Amino acid sequence: MNGVINNCGMLEELSVKRLRGITEGAASDLIGPGVAAGSLKTICLKELYNGQCFGPLIVGAKNLKTLKLFRCSGDWDRLLEMFAENVRCLVEVHLERLQVSDRGLGAVSNCVGLEILHLVKTPECTNVGLVAIADRCKHLRKLHIDGWKTNRIGDEGLIAIARRCPNLQELVLIGVNPTSLSLGLLAANCQNLERLALCGSETIGDAEISCIAAKCRALRKLCIKGCPVSDHGMEALAGGCPSLVKVKVKKCRGVTSEGANWLRESRGSLAVNLDTGASDIPEDIAGEGGLEENVVEIPPAASQSTAADMVSSSNGRSPLYKVKLGFFAGRNFVASTFRKWSSSNNGTNSIKY
Predict the structure, then answer these.
(1) Is the pLDDT of residue 159 over 70?
(2) Is residue 123 within 8 Å of residue 148, measured between CB atoms?
(3) d(CA 334, CA 279)
């Protein structure tokens, strides 16, 4: 790795996944910064046992725009603090299944130009860290949070986002329990909010959907999954959200096909997709120009996955193999879904269904 870093002065993107040569015994062999540090724009590390060996490279990449860390062991708070002291032009951060706390989020908040933040299954991150992000990162456009149903991020953090991040366009909440209090402020203050996904929330019911329908005038695309919503919520959508063009409802037991059909008929231009969850085989959303583009799919939280949710093409596989296959298939499905949510008029800024 050091050979690449030391000799590739034009390198702009580095992605490293499951590099088995980096072990605890090789911890003293730090990677970087090297000549590549000056040109790197994107660093992505996935499933590395000792990914902090890349610390000198990350800290030294002063022109870095995007940092993605997925399931890398070790405590990342201190490294993020060192990184934030040297790199201030960061635009996009993804933190997934990391040992990172509000201390690390506070460090990230020093990157005042931050526009995109993904927090996925980081149980030590709380409202305190999200408030720090809101206080300093006024240009935030996209926020994805998978709270893992820990209830450590909720109304307090989302209210701070609503009050201080008026440019928010895309909000995805999985395993988070917001109420009408925070949703109402988000709708009132974030008037560019166009894409909203609510998944696995125990507090998103008809009242919250009615609040969204009444106040989210710019909302174009809405996904609701695994929430206690009924046909009454669909009735509220029929008379609200004047810009709404696409709605996906999945595994909301209170929503019937009659309610979805009524919503579709009430607003003829609205694309409505209802999935009752009878089949857990994920539909193909990669097709171009087909009906699949109207589907928004948000994966279940890890705690909700069961063996029944996992699909294998062969009945001869071992149970362990099927479990592993289902896990990684789900991850690929998440990535595919969120990539669909990432283009704009110039191809980079809006969700594509």
Answers:
(1) yes
(2) yes
(3) 18
